[in-house]
Amino acid sequence: MKFMGFEHKSRIYTEQLNFLEPILNEWVRVNRDIREQTGTNLNWFNERANLSALAGAVWRCGGVAVEEYSSPKGEEGSMGRIDLFFKFNNKAVICESKHRWLFLPSYLDGKDFIGEIERDLELENCNAKDDISHTLQSRKNKCDFGLAITYYVPYWKGSESRHQALGLKKQIEELKCDFYAYLECTGFDPLVNSKGEGYSSILMVGHVHKE
Question: pTM of the predicted model, to two decimals?
C-alpha cells in the first residue's frame, strides 16, 4: 500500500489472523493522518501512543476497542492492567505490547537486524509474549486470540542518511512472527530530537499466544 509521502508493507503469516488485514491497513491511515494534521509521528512517542493508533484503526474499521483497563491477571486474586482489548469481525482479542528503540548505524547493510529483533523478542520477563501469557492465565480474560505486539522504532544519529533504513526493510520478510506491519514517512523530513537522532519509521511485530 502506498500513500503520498508514505510507504507501507505488511504480511500475515498465520491464516487464522487474516481478519486483521483491514486493521493493519487502517493503522497506516491513522499514522498518516496524525502526521499530516499535527506534523509529528506517533513513533516519536512511547508504547501507549503507538498502541492508540492500533485502537483507532479498530474503531475506524467498525470494531470496538478499550485501552489500559484493570483486570485479573495471572493467578487468581492478582490484578493488573491489560494494554488493549478489541472486538472486530466477531473476534475478541486481548493484546499486550512493548516498545523498543532500534539504532540504525551507517553499516546497516551488513548487520543482522532481524536476528537482533528476534533475540530481543525472546528476552525473559521483559517481552510482550510473557505479558500475554500471564494475562491469559486468568480464566476471566476470555478471548479468541491473545496477541503479543512489539513496536520497534528505528533511528539514526548525526549525518547518517535515512536511506540506511533500506537495509532493514530488505530483511523484514525474514522475521519469524505471525504478522508484521512497517510504515515509513518517505515524503517528509525526519523528526530529529535534541540529541541529533532522526526518526521516520516504525515496525509492528505480532505473535499469537499459543497454549
Answer: 0.89
Tell me the CA distances in angstroms from 169 to 10, 27, 36, 133, 184, one per residue in order. 11, 18, 23, 29, 10
More confident residue, 72 or 58: 58
Q: Is residue 2 over pLDDT 70?
A: no
DSSP notation for 81-143 = EEEEEEEETTEEEEEEEEEEEEE--TTGGGS-HHHHHHHHHT-TTSSHHHHHHHHTTSTT---
Burial of 187 (0-12, 13-18, 19+ CB in 10 A): exposed
CB atoms within 10 A of CB 33: 14
Mean pLDDT, the chain, whole residue set = 84
Q: How many CB atoms lie within 10 A of CB 103?
A: 13
Q: What mean pLDDT is predicted for residues 48-56?
A: 91
Residue 59: φ, ψ to 5° = -60, -45
